[in-house]
Design goal:
Blueprint (H helix, E strand, L loop, with lengths): L1 H5 L5 E5 L2 E5 L5 H38 L5 H34 L1
Antiparallel strand pairs: 1-2
């Protein structure tokens, strides 16, 4: 119950003997805009996380090359592989956001 309240999802939570009851407000145009803003915020947070993970992976690759564990060719191929995963993840995140945006505007 506390976790749902702390998530700030805009829902009401009540607890009773049989469990939790979550009350969702009616979707007004104002509420749809709020949810869309929340979705945009979550999208941007996800992008930031993906960029941070990419930077960590790139640094690890550079470190491995400087330590002589991998060669220069392998370094570039690993960097390309990391970037392709990042690009695919970003496309997936964007598709999820677009789907949610369509659902909210319907």
């Amino acid at each position: 119950e506390e976790a749902i309240r702390d998530a700030d999802l805009g829902v009401s939570v009540t607890g009773d003997s049989s469990g939790l009851r979550v009350i969702f407000p009616e979707l007004t145009s104002e509420r749809r805009e709020q949810l869309l803003k929340l979705a945009k915020s979550k999208l941007e947070d996800s992008r930031i996380t993906v960029r941070a993970l990419r930077d960590d992976a790139m640094k690890a690759i550079e470190k491995a090359e400087k330590a002589g564990e991998i060669g220069e060719d392998e370094k570039f191929s690993k960097k390309d592989a990391v970037q392709s995963v990042v690009d695919e993840t970003n496309r997936s995140l964007e598709a999820l956001f677009t789907q949610k945006e369509t659902e909210l505007k319907a």
